[in-house]
Amino acid sequence: MRFSIKTNGFNDIIDITDRVSKAVKESKVKDGICLISCPGSTCGITTIEYESGLIEDLKKALEIVAPMNENYEHCKKWGDCNGFSHVRSALLKPFLAVPIEDGELVLGAWQNLVFLDFDNRPRNREIIVKVIKSSSD
Amino acid sequence: MRFSIKTNGFNDIIDITDRVSKAVKESKVKDGICLISCPGSTCGITTIEYESGLIEDLKKALEIVAPMNENYEHCKKWGDCNGFSHVRSALLKPFLAVPIEDGELVLGAWQNLVFLDFDNRPRNREIIVKVIKSSSD
Amino acid sequence: MRFSIKTNGFNDIIDITDRVSKAVKESKVKDGICLISCPGSTCGITTIEYESGLIEDLKKALEIVAPMNENYEHCKKWGDCNGFSHVRSALLKPFLAVPIEDGELVLGAWQNLVFLDFDNRPRNREIIVKVIKSSSD
After folding, report:
1. Chain C neighbours among B 3-42 (CB < 8 Å)?
2. CB–CB of C93 and B47 under 8 A?
3. Which of A57, A107, C2, C137 has the maximal Cβ count within 10 Å?
4. What is the tens place of the pLDDT at every residue in C70-85?
5. pTM of the full structure
């Protein structure tokens, strides 16, 4: 299963919990795991409480490790000045495996699935949702 | 399968290798993968050599990216001053998939499974262990 | 399935895409997930565009969070001065789950699977590739 999203790039953080949950329900798998991923080298997937304050706080932390400037070898070598996007993606990884029980993703009450687009331009992204039954399903 | 742990919060780092290994043995799966997770937005799961020096070293690294102070939008907006807990969790993620062979987790000799509680208070946490058979089991 | 690689340590970053893809083809699984891991506490696995500029950029980011010096409790306590190697491994994790469709890893055009050896000496490493069929295979 897969679905598409449009992003604004520049660390746009998008809540994908509902779309992934829908895909899990459609799979009819009651117990197992769900792998959420995106085939791209400038994006990430994780969980966070989806609240505008924390979204800013997360961006600030990423700015410490891989600041959004042009001081990257990738930019110097290729004139492609999204070095920070690639580095953030390598650190955060666009892959996340989440358990399924009773046909639902097992997440905390305040824990949302988010897609992060680190690229330096708007993008259309394909999110892949792969569902695997556990031995006891 | 699941088990509970009590934590002290404030980056308490707890070795959960034995409890996860026990769950894997009880599943009787000989070859496959084990997904360890916790439904929460202020915690993480990873591996490290469980030795008090390294535990301090890891905390120091997390302090660089998401320092334990009140300078977070989450705190300013909601008066909930565990912004660092949420940001650390989004970066480290409370999900980890580990291979199983011969009925055992495949880990290095010095590689322990650890749960990290980033919250700013003691917590009771539920750890979920989901076991999936590989095609060749 | 598993394969061996020789590394130079000191953040040697090695492209393992072809070897993992070969293992996936040999498994004959058409649809599912592939867990790539390494049993070690001083290494990591992620994806990045494998290009020498970005490889340097990623190393620079890791240097911010866990600098390669001897100022680690692990070094002070045990005289084992690869504290940065352990901390980088705990943050990046030597585990990655990637989806499989049509018998192939689902990765972006510029997205390579890489193994990172953070240790402070050359190493021989064993990479474990575990393939799991999805419910719809």
Report:
1. 31-33
2. yes
3. A57
4. 999 999 999 999 999 9
5. 0.97
